[in-house]
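Section 3.1: Structural characterization of target chains.
Under the original work plan, the team committed to producing a structural model for every single-chain target entering the pipeline before any wet-lab resources were allocated. The record below documents one such target. The sequence was received from the expression subgroup and is listed exactly as submitted; it comprises 293 residues.
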Amino acid sequence: MLIKKPIDQDAIRGLSQISLPFLFAMVLLAAPMVLLLAMSFWTQDFLTLDKSFTLNNIREAWFEPIYQVLMMRSLKISLIVTFVTILLAYPAAYYMSFVAPNRRKPLLVFLITIPFWTSYLMRIFLWKVILGYNGVINSTLIELGFIEKPLEFILYNQFAVVLTLSHAWLPFAVLPIFVAMERMNRSYLEAAQDLGDSAFQSFIRITLPLTMPGVVAATLIVFVPTIGDYVTPKLVGGPDGLMIANMIEMQFKKANNAPLGAALALSAMFLVATVALIFVWLNRRYLKSEGAA
């Protein structure tokens, strides 16, 4: 009995610590997901909600051409944004961790967080001012004599969506990569140099594999939210830049068809989860191959 008593106390203490977060997750995450799943099998006729089981919404979400186009466009834009963001974030994090003096690292981290101080909507509207027909870029190019009339292709298209989202999510990508680099054991680099590796070889063989967890975290942090963003495409995307989240919003609001909106939302979540799992699996294969080498 004396041996089991501490175990029981530890179990009770552990349950007491996880009970509130578990209840929080169930109420705010699991319950809405279950409701969304159930709603996707219903039908709605204006204000009347028919709870009879049907697969029409799922079939329409996956096989209707307009939804397929929006799904693929959302996936493409999100992948491009993720790629551009990681491509910009990795050198920035590398400079902060390996090049900048230790006394300046807190200042650089502080500067990275400055965009968080402003509203997300304000940053989107600022990009509209910059990219607009009479915006900063067009006005500057006209004043310098490079163009005679404003450029129309830099706003209200997929390019504007990618640019705005990349700017918005760049700080979220820099920080996890920076943390992974800071945790890396620098003695590995010294050993590689002693064995004759060049700086590039050390980066490919040591730095990149050891910082891949930060890259994976940054990739998921950027990819998952951007595919469901609807504010940015609505404000700077125009007709050619709208994404699946804009259609989901329209189904819940203007079209008053919540079951179809739920089916589209679940389909988008399934697509995001599939791509994310594939990326994590490929990363594990890469790390295993690097470890074997």
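The radius of gyration is 24 Å.
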